[in-house]
C-alpha cells in the first residue's frame, strides 16, 4: 500500500486542502507532512502543523499515487497524542439525503452543505447522488469544480486551537452564492452558518420530517 514515502511532491493535494489555502505554508499540507516524514522529522517537530489539519479527507481523492493521506495523518496524530474531536460522534447523514422527502423539500433558494468527511470517504459512490439531487432540485451545494465538498472546519481540533479560521472558511464557502435557506448534514455547522449568513439553517432531518 502506498505511504508517505511514495509522495514525489506533485502538489495536487494542495488544490483541495483548506489548511494550505489558509496558511500558504507547505508545512501545513499533506505534501508537507509527507516530506517531513521522508526527511526524518520528529513527531514533536511536526505537532503544530499536524494539529492544523481539519481532516476533511479531500486530499486522498487528488493524490495520483493513491496514498491514504488521511489514514497516514491519523496514524501520526495518534503517535503525537492528538485527538480528533470533530467527527467522533457525527452520524452519517447520507441515508437522510436519499429520502424522497429531501428532494421534494429542496429548491433553488436552498444551499445544501454536505458533511465533507463522510462524503469524501465514499466519494465515488456518493458524488453522483449529490449531483443528481442538485440537478433535480436546483439547490446549490458546497461542491467545488473538482467535485470535492468544501468543509467548514467547525468543531475540528484546529478550530478549537485557533489554527483554522472557520469564519474565513465560511465566507469563502458562500462567496458568490445566492440562497434564502441553508441545509446542513452536520449539526455543528448550524450556529455559525446562521450567524454569518443571516439565513435560517436547518438540519437535513428536518426536511424528512416536514
Describe the structure.
47% of the residues lie in helices and 6% in strands. It starts with 17 loop residues before the first helix and ends with a helix. The protein has helices spanning 18-23, 30-38, 43-51, 58-62, 69-80, 94-97, 100-105, 116-121, 123-137, 157-160, 166-174, 190-197, 204-208; strands at 110-113, 140-141, 181-184, 201-203. Strands 2-1-3-4 form a four-stranded parallel β-sheet. Helix 12 (190-197) links the parallel strand 3 and strand 4. It has 13 helices and four strands. The chain has two domains: 4-80, no CATH class; 94-208, Rossmann fold, CATH 3.40.50. With 210 residues, it is of the alpha/beta class. The model has no long low-confidence stretch (mean pLDDT 92).
List keywords for this structure.
Rossmann fold, 47% helix, 4 strands, 210 residues, 2 domains, 4-stranded parallel beta sheet, globular
**Tell me, what is the CATH class of the largest domain?**
Alpha Beta
What is the helical fraction, as a range of percent? 40-55%
Shape descriptor:
globular
Radius of gyration: 17 Å
What is the helix/strand order? HHHHHHHEHHEHHEHEH
Largest sheet: 4 strands, parallel
Whole-number tally of structural domains: 2
* Uncertain stretches of 5 or more adjacent residues: none
Query: Mean of residue pLDDT?
Result: 92
- Look up the CATH topology of the largest domain: Rossmann fold
Q: What is the beta-strand fraction?
A: 5-15%
Assigned CATH architecture of the largest domain: 3-Layer(aba) Sandwich
Measured distance between first and last alpha carbons: 46 Å
Task: Indicate the structural class.
Answer: alpha/beta
Count the strands? Answer: 4
Multimerization state: single chain
Q: Specify the number of helices.
A: 13
Question: Taking strands numbered 1, 2, ... along the chain, how are they ordered across the largest sheet?
Answer: 2-1-3-4
Amino acid at each position: 500500500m502506498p505511504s508517505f514515502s511514495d509522495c514525489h511532491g506533485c502538489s495536487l493535494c494542495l488544490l483541495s486542502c483548506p489548511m494550505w489555502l489558509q496558511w500558504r505554508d507547505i508545512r501545513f499540507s499533506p505534501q508537507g507532512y509527507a516530506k517531513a516524514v521522508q526527511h526524518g522529522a520528529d513527531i514533536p517537530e511536526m505537532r503544530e502543523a499536524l494539529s492544523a489539519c481539519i481532516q476533511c479527507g479531500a486530499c486522498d481523492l487528488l493524490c495520483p499515487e493513491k496514498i491514504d493521506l488521511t489514514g497516514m495523518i491519523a496514524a501520526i496524530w495518534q503517535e503525537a497524542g492528538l485527538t480528533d474531536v470533530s467527527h467522533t460522534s457525527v452520524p452519517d447523514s447520507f441515508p437522510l439525503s436519499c429520502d424522497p422527502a429531501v428532494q421534494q423539500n429542496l429548491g433553488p433558494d436552498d444551499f445544501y452543505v454536505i458533511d465533507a468527511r463522510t462524503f469524501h470517504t465514499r466519494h465515488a459512490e456518493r458524488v453522483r447522488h449529490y449531483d443528481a439531487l442538485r440537478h433535480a432540485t436546483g439547490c446549490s451545494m458546497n461542491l467545488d469544480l473538482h467535485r470535492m465538498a468544501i468543509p467548514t472546519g467547525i468543531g475540528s481540533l484546529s478550530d478549537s486551537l485557533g489554527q483554522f479560521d472557520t469564519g474565513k472558511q465560511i465566507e469563502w464557502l458562500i462567496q458568490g452564492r445566492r440562497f434564502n435557506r441553508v441545509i446542513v448534514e452536520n449539526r455543528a455547522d448550524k450556529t455559525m452558518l446562521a450567524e454569518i449568513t443571516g439565513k435560517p439553517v436547518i438540519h437535513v432531518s428536518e426536511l424528512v420530517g416536514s
